[in-house]
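F.,

This is the one I mentioned.
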């Protein structure tokens, strides 16, 4: 079968083992069953073929590949889509072929390939709530969000969409929770008791919420059941026995406006009885917080002498 003319051809030759020269010719574009110019029309249905099966499909279709890389609070490991109220992410393509791409909120890169008509295009991204309304519009790199497609051209776009607190259209009022464990060494298991080592008793902890400049947020408070919240002013301490369960920080305002917060951190220092120096703490590396986050904090040991020394064998 010669695909170029749709004719059956029989090849015969005298003599056993005689070599034959055979050239296989592909079918013309207007007969190959492929939408070669990506305009949505195939073979004789494509106007450019003009009824000629030996013709070429010549169209104006172009295309683009979009790689969307969502981030939450600039890569904050404590941030989550649910905590921020983001259900879906929508990418809007504005231009001659306008379309919207939607996918569930994630921090995993998403790749889309779209057939587009030639022309000028702009891209935008939005984070959507459960009701489909826009919650956040991240700032994008203008160098990659606008492009021009030539006929039969192709554009590859790598788009970072960082859902920072400033990108949200309204302030977020939310607290966060945490659990605490004491880690005596890199090869040790974390303990949730107040006696992490023989003879070493932790009796209290100072819990402090810090702002982006690592300064104390004096309005932060620890929920205390039916009692009034405990103000975390950088001085007050909480008995160790009260920290063996998940504790909640009262709601704070997350926003880029004055008196609100784009970043918050949680610093915890655990003290032995009679000690003014913490035995365990994350003061050098406070834990980043996020709206509605649940933080599992393992406090490393930072002091080994004085009141922080464990019992030794005589």
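My design for it:
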């Amino acid at each position: 079968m010669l695909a170029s003319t749709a004719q059956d051809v029989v090849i015969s030759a005298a003599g056993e083992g005689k070599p034959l020269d055979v050239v296989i010719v592909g079918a013309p574009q207007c007969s190959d069953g492929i939408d070669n110019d990506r305009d949505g029309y195939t073979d004789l249905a494509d106007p450019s073929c003009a009824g000629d099966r030996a013709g070429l499909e010549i169209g104006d279709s172009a295309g683009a590949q979009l790689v969307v890389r969502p981030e939450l609070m600039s890569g904050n490991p404590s941030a989550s889509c649910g905590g921020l109220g983001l259900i879906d992410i929508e990418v809007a393509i504005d231009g001659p072929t306008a379309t919207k791409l939607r996918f569930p909120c994630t921090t995993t890169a998403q790749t889309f390939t779209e057939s587009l008509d030639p022309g000028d295009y702009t891209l935008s991204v939005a984070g959507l709530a459960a009701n489909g309304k826009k919650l956040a519009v991240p700032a994008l790199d203008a160098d990659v969000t606008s492009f021009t497609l030539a006929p039969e051209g192709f554009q590859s776009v790598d788009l970072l969409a960082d859902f920072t607190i400033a990108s949200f259209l309204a302030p977020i009022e939310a607290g966060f929770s945490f659990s605490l464990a004491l880690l005596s060494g890199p090869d040790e298991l974390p303990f949730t008791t107040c006696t992490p080592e023989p003879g070493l008793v932790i009796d209290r902890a100072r819990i402090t919420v810090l702002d982006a400049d690592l300064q104390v947020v004096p309005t932060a408070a620890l929920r205390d059941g039916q009692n009034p919240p405990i103000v975390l002013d950088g001085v007050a301490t909480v008995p160790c026995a009260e920290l063996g369960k998940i504790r909640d920080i009262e709601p704070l305002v997350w926003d880029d406006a004055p008196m609100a917060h784009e970043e918050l951190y949680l610093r915890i220092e655990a003290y032995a009885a009679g000690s003014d120096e913490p035995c365990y703490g994350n003061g050098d590396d406070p834990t980043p917080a996020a709206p509605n986050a649940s933080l599992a904090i393992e406090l490393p040991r930072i002091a080994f002498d004085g009141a922080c020394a464990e019992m030794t064998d005589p």
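The chain has a mean pLDDT of 89.

Talk soon.
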